[in-house]
């Protein structure tokens, strides 16, 4: 009898990885060998999914799905759905699950239709629900460590694969214990938090009038940042949030694989997206991508080769100069 194979596409969040491990465990019990493809949280390049499983991934401009089964979550409605895609990419809902808050729960319900029962440790499921809901304080000690570990290692393919292997072991042994690798990653997160505190209390930030700007780059002159870039990079949003609470506007320059970008948090009622746009250097308006999501603005050069640290700092200077008069007279929204 020939071996059956299946591919599971999933993102790299904790819930997504556990859901993939759950589905893989169920399929293995039916004699199916699985391969897992981890898809970036933000999908920039086209992905084509055919005769596979898609966890937390829906058809979109960059994603096409054919002859596959999809697992999706609508958290604001507490709704999970299992979707079947035909060979033309048309979808139909196979299962609709109320009071469902994780993709793992969706997969657990689905595998029962395969006459397979997967029984994860109860505390693991509770932790994933708490962490998915953005309530890490309600998680167990192990759950808190998982949250820290995935945050500090989110961009590491090796760690994502290690976390997947960890969940497979937990499901197989039903023993929910902290592994040495996760404990080590969690400790690095705690180390990074201490660096953030030191960063915000020191002269390692750039000052533009009333604004302080964090620079997380290996090209920056400050040793604290240059030498700890890999630890500080995953916490850039934490830094941005704290600056936003302090000043009404948070600004952070971040070195990425595509050059340097500028992230801005708008926390003042009198500072708007329009103010940001009007403060940009007019001669660069056609060269920049400027996006708004919630109260966060991301500015990047369309051509990554132009996104040097000096170029982005020049933009930060221009924006800070334009916002300064508004900040000196506007109250902050905490």
Low-confidence stretches: 330-334
Spatial strand order of the main sheet: 2-1-4-6-7-8
Q: How many domains, as an integer?
A: 2
Number of helices: 11
Number of strands: 14
Q: How large is the radius of gyration?
A: 22 Å
Distance between the termini: 64 Å
- Helix percent reads 25-40%
Q: In sequence order, what are the helices and strands, one letter per element?
A: EHEEEEEEEHHHHHEEHHHEEHEEH
Form type: globular
Supply the helix-strand structural class.
alpha/beta
Give the amount of beta strand, in percent.
Answer: 15-25%
Average pLDDT number: 91
- What profile does the largest beta sheet have? 6 strands, mixed
Structure report:
This protein is an alpha/beta fold. The protein has two domains: 4-186, no CATH class; 202-327, Diaminopimelate Epimerase, Chain A, domain 1 (Roll), CATH 3.10.310. The protein is 40% helix and 25% strand. The protein contains eleven helices and 14 strands. A six-stranded mixed sheet has the order 2-1-4-6-7-8, covered by helices on one side. A six-stranded mixed sheet has the order 9-10-11-12-14-13. It has a two-stranded parallel sheet with strand order 3-5. A hairpin with a 2-residue loop joins strand 9 (206-208) and strand 10. It is globular. 34% of the residues are buried.
């Amino acid at each position: 009898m020939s071996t059956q194979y299946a591919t599971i596409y999933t993102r790299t969040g904790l819930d997504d990885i556990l859901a993939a491990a759950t589905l893989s465990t169920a399929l293995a019990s039916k004699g199916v060998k699985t391969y897992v493809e981890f898809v970036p949280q933000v999908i920039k390049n086209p992905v084509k999914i055919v005769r596979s499983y898609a966890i937390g991934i829906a058809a979109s401009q960059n994603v096409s799905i054919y002859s596959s089964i999809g697992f999706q979550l609508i958290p604001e409605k507490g709704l999970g759905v299992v979707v079947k895609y035909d060979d033309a990419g048309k979808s139909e809902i196979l299962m609709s699950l109320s009071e469902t808050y994780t993709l793992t729960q969706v997969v657990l319900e689905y595998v029962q239709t395969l006459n397979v029962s997967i029984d994860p440790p109860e505390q693991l499921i509770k932790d994933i629900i708490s962490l998915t809901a953005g309530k890490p304080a309600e998680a167990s000690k192990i759950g808190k460590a998982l949250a820290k570990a995935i945050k500090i290692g989110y961009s590491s393919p090796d760690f994502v694969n290690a976390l997947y292997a960890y969940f497979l072991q937990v499901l197989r042994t039903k023993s929910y214990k902290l592994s040495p690798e996760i404990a080590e990653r969690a400790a690095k997160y705690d180390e990074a938090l201490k660096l953030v505190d030191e960063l915000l209390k020191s002269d390692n930030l750039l000052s533009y009038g009333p604004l302080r700007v964090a620079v997380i780059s290996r090209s920056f002159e400050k040793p604290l940042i240059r030498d700890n870039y890999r630890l500080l990079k995953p916490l850039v949003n934490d830094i941005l949030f704290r600056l936003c609470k302090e000043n009404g506007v948070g600004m952070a320059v971040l070195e990425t694989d595509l050059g340097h970008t500028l992230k801005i948090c708008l926390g003042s009622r009198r500072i708007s997206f329009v103010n940001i746009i009007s403060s940009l250097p007019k001669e660069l308006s056609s060269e920049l991508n400027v996006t708004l999501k919630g109260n966060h603005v991301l500015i990047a050069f369309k051509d990554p080769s132009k996104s040097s640290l000096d170029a982005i700092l020049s933009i930060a200077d221009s924006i800070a100069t334009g916002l300064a008069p508004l900040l000196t007279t506007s109250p902050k929204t905490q």
